[in-house]
Write a structure and sequence with these properties.
The protein is built from seven helices and seven strands. The protein is α/β, with parallel strands linked by helices. The protein has one domain: Uracil-DNA Glycosylase, subunit E. The strands form two sheets. Strands 3-2-6-7 form a four-stranded parallel β-sheet. A three-stranded antiparallel β-sheet has the order 1-4-5, with helices on one face. α2 crosses α7. It is globular. The chain starts with a strand and ends with a helix. It comes from Posidoniimonas corsicana. It holds the Pfam family UDG. InterPro entries: Hypoxan-DNA_Glyclase (IPR026353), Uracil-DNA_glycosylase-like (IPR005122), Uracil-DNA_glycosylase-like_sf (IPR036895). This is Uracil DNA glycosylase superfamily protein.
Amino acid sequence: MTLARSFPPIESPSARVLVLGSMPGVASLEVGQYYAHPRNAFWPIMGELFGAGPDLPYERRTERLAASGVAVWDVLRECRREGSLDTSIEVASEQPNDFGGFLARCRQIERIYFNGQKAETAFLRHAAPLLDKTTADKLTLARLPSTSPAHAGRSFAQKLAEWRRVAEGV
């Protein structure tokens, strides 16, 4: 198993929502960019919702999200995994990011949207129990369909319809 390490969040002190993945895939880790796989629907959806689509350079996309009140990060700081699939993550190796510190910096976040089931499961297992009660009580948590190309059970239009909740949350 290969040790995978995440990278810093896309954040802003004015962020009102946080979108969480589990761990960046191999393509993302290789270039140091969130959702870098060309068939991942994340950036096309962000383009529809916030004008932060894949036609823009990565830096401009992240600036647009931050300016729109959207933060992006991953639940896991590191884990062991072969390939990019969430199902390949070795659960015993999962180490969460510091959400207490992150939420202290981004105090306006009240909604967390999970990009798929693994992100939600890992957050509830590793991160949520470490949050202080005041912080935990103010958060609304919701799972959205994964934007991964491996999650082909829904069309782009169906995913976009559910992901509109992110725009409604800011």
